[in-house]
DNA sequence: AAAAAAC
């Protein structure tokens, strides 16, 4: 099967060829015909499956068939970086098709960004890619016309609900024509997603490419380390492995700059991305990282989903992600396209119970490697420790130890000089933001007219 | 239980 089988507009087919999409991925093969038919759709698919193109191609086809001078498609995404990336992907299609788009998200300084966004909406950029908060901010100003929106797409819907966007999404949907096509993509299908789908989709088709199993091209392994050993282990990895480019993930914003400084002190070059950094800095770091100028990015889970950067050879989980799903997303940043990648997770003594959940989700064991020579022994592996809440006698599937090549950690002691070359005087964490702790008091009980709760006092 | 997202 090829993209030519979909009978698309010639400029769209040419774009697809130009962007070197060869053969439709499974999501694309299943979703594109359904979306072209005009049906609503629920897509259970992770990033890296070609999901974005799966919804962009038929949507652009529709726009080419029905040219209008108004916005026709609204895409909602959870993070600014993802919105921007989707917008850039549309630009790729727009080169030959002429389809216009605009990313609508907050954080950028300068009122000029605001007016550019406003201008795009008023002049009918055909596709709007927005984070919910900023779109609503524009809507409040009164000039946003959404009555020509024919397609609504929710990308990473589960993440958006996690972030508390349910009400925002409903508020936006209420401004859209009821006669529209709605596409919802989500990595998982919890009840909340079903409820949202029941509310805003009509008789949706379902496409299921739910791979909770990450690509086999990723060489996964883990080390049991004490927290104080982490940076030494990091150094070992950077010096011993052939690191082209790397993302280091941490669950806490407050750790990002610490890790950046520690890595740079070793003579490597890294910069951080998290919501603590202002948007311009975030985007500058991403630009350098995508260009290959910057070899190492240290990030929170803001970058775990969807971000597509070529050539990331290594992902290091400096800690274990909160949600097992996030682990799959994080390591999916490597081994993009035809490449292979290495994912290494640092497990400390306290958060071992999270590992078990990840292994259950993946239905495979995460190989635990012994610490390299010269390291003091790390903590013992005991993932059951904190699981007091779970049913103790629950029978668990025996897991096969995945066979195949062991991690190259030990194998490549003789690696040539790493590409992520140490550089003298690498810029140290330049964005030093003293975090002002907003002491949050218990929220005041709000008078809520719609609730009849009575509290005995 | 932390992250992100509006000014």
Automatic annotation (TrEMBL):
Residues 407-428, 445-457 have a biased composition (Low complexity). Residues 1-29 form the DEAD-box RNA helicase Q domain. Keywords: ATP-binding, Helicase, Hydrolase, Nucleotide-binding. PANTHER family: ATP-DEPENDENT RNA HELICASE RHLE (PTHR47959:SF13), ATP-DEPENDENT RNA HELICASE RHLE-RELATED (PTHR47959). Belongs to the DEAD box helicase family. PROSITE patterns: DEAD_ATP_HELICASE, HELICASE_ATP_BIND_1, HELICASE_CTER, Q_MOTIF. It comes from the Bacteria. Residues 229-377 form the Helicase C-terminal domain. GO terms for molecular function: ATP binding; hydrolase activity; nucleic acid binding; RNA helicase activity. Residues 369-457 are annotated as: Disordered. GO terms for cellular component: cytosol. Residues 32-207 form the Helicase ATP-binding domain. Residues 394-403, 432-444 have a biased composition (Basic residues). A motif (Q motif) lies at residues 1-29. Pfam families: DEAD, Helicase_C. This is Superfamily II DNA and RNA helicase.
